[in-house]
Amino acid sequence: MQSRRTGGIGRRVEGGTARLIAAVLACASGLAMAAGAERVRPPDSIAERVAACVACHGNEGRATAEGYFPRIAGKPAGYLFNQLANFRDGRRRNASMNYLVANLPDAYLQEIAVYFAAQNPPYPPPQAAQAAPAVIERGRVLTERGDGSKLPACAACHGSALTGVAPAIPGLLGLPRDYLNAQLGAWRNGDRRAHAPDCMGEIARRLSEADLGAVTAYLSTQAPAAHAAPAVQAPAPLPLRCGGLEALSVKAEAVPAKAEVPARAEALPAKAAAVPAKAAAVPAKAAAVPAKAAAVPAKAAP
Ligand code: HEC
Ligand code: HEC
User: Fold this and answer.
1) By the 8 A CB rule, do 194 and 244 touch?
2) What is residue 9's predicted lDDT score, i.e. its pLDDT?
3) What is the pLDDT of residue 294?
4) Is 158 helix (H, G, I), strand (E, B) or coil?
5) How far apart are CA 267 and CA 218, in angstroms?
6) CB contact at 8 A, 229 and 244
7) Average pLDDT, stretch 85-112?
8) Cα–Cα nearest to 122, from 170, 172, 174
9) Rounded to whole angstroms, how far apart are CA atoms 298 and 276?
10) Euclidean distance between CA atoms 150 and 162, whole angstroms
11) Helices (H), 118-158
């Protein structure tokens, strides 16, 4: 199946690069310092740490329309944090990513997430259509309207402009078709999981093989608006409960004031220094969302 093969590209890329980067990250986070405190202190600004990521994710995390690597720039910070934690904790599998974030503490992942969430480089042009127009039209209908009581519209959760909804739902445009196919395939076969209840696992299992292909054919050929940013709020209460949002609110309550992050921010370059205020706003928002989602019993979107 194509999605499994393309998923392998990311896994095969530069195992050596990943190991080197992991070492840099571990040093920078202080984990490797205990054993070798007498050694020269490694570079430790957020810009230096995330420079490693652009080897695969592209400048400023923008990715490209070709290939497999997902854009990470401008995705909501809570979503990026959840993914880094998912790779670390084994809910998502990719050899490079699992290796890179192994053992990194939450506060460190949060800082990286906030950094990339604040980037907003232009999107690459969308991919050329390969599917027949009728297939792409089917994809559009499923995305915007869903399929009766069988499937809620993707837009009901990912936002009417499909640019995602803060704090924990990602945008769906500007991602390669191969990447989209692989993610939905991984959800179906259990290789990718979000916190329970995993609404995307449910959605992926409700999509027939043909509809899955139609949706990704549509999404990968759409251009987002210039400087598209996640919406602040979903258009209406979410049609299913999503554990990723709830996990953030639990964390926000358990760890009210991520003390380490602002402290580290002193070292950040001017651009990143503006970010912590936003980071502080994320947990508050996260706490507000689940209450709403929970109030609505699982029901299909119109
Ligand atoms: C060796 C290549 C490589 C490097 C280096 C790398 N990544 Fe990744 N990253 C990937 C691949 C491939 C995927 C998609 C994995 C999958 O199929 O689930 C990914 C996925 C992600 C995702 C999930 C994106 C989404 O939309 O769900 C995030 C977040 C991420 N990477 C952040 C980072 C950060 C932060 C760094 C630097 C610390 C980094 N990556 C370095 C290859 C890499
Ligand atoms: C009930 C709300 C909901 C609906 C409806 C929904 N999604 Fe999602 N989607 C989410 C959430 C929440 C996430 C983040 C999951 C996580 O934390 O890993 C997500 C993540 C994704 C991702 C991962 C993006 C990336 O960068 O890796 C893809 C792809 C995706 N959804 C596609 C779709 C498609 C296609 C549809 C419509 C057929 C759809 N979603 C409908 C809530 C929803």
Assistant:
1) yes
2) 39
3) 36
4) helix
5) 43
6) no
7) 95
8) 174
9) 35
10) 20
11) 133-145, 155-158
Question: What's the CA-to-centroid distance between 157 and ligand 2, angstroms?
Answer: 7
Distance CA 106, CA 173 (A): 28
169 lines ligand 2 (CB under 6 A): yes
Ligand positioned closest to the Cα atom of 238: 2
Q: Are 82 and 19 in contact (CB under 8 A)?
A: no
Compute the mean pLDDT over every residue in the chain, rounded to the nearest whole number: 77
Please tell me the distance from the alpha carbon of residue 131 to that of residue 136, in angstroms, as a whole number: 7
Integer Cα distance of 44 and 22 in angstroms: 14
Q: How far is the CA of 64 from the centre of ligand 2 (A)?
A: 20
Question: What is the tens place of the pLDDT at every residue in 149-204?
Answer: 999 999 999 999 999 999 999 999 999 999 999 999 999 999 999 999 999 999 99
Q: List, in sequence order, every residue forming a beta bridge with 165; answer none if it has no partner.
A: 169, 231
The answer, yes or no, to whether residue 85 has pLDDT greater than 50, is yes
- CA 143 to ligand 2: nearest atom: 37
Ligand 1 atom 31: residue of nearest CA: 97
Q: What residue's CA is closest to ligand 2, atom 25?
A: 170
Number of H helices, E strands in the chain: 16, 0
- Centre of ligand 2 from the C-alpha of residue 108, in Å: 25
Atom number, ligand 2, closest to the C-alpha of residue 193: 18
User: How much of the chain exceeds pLDDT 70, in percent?
Assistant: 68
pLDDT digits (tens, 9 = 90+) for 259-285: 333 333 333 333 333 333 333 333 333
Element (H, E) at 286: helix 276-295
Q: For residue 253, what are the contacts with CB-CB under 8 A and spacing of at least 6? A: 287
Report the candidate in 151, 164, 118 with the shortest Cα–Cα distance to residue 268.
118
Report the alpha-carbon distance of residue 290 to residue 300 in Å, rounded: 18
* Count of CB atoms situated within 10 Å of the CB of 126: 17
Q: Pick the residue with more confidence: 217 or 8?
A: 217
Q: What is the DSSP letter of 59?
A: G
Look at residue 134 in the predicted model and tell me its pLDDT: 98
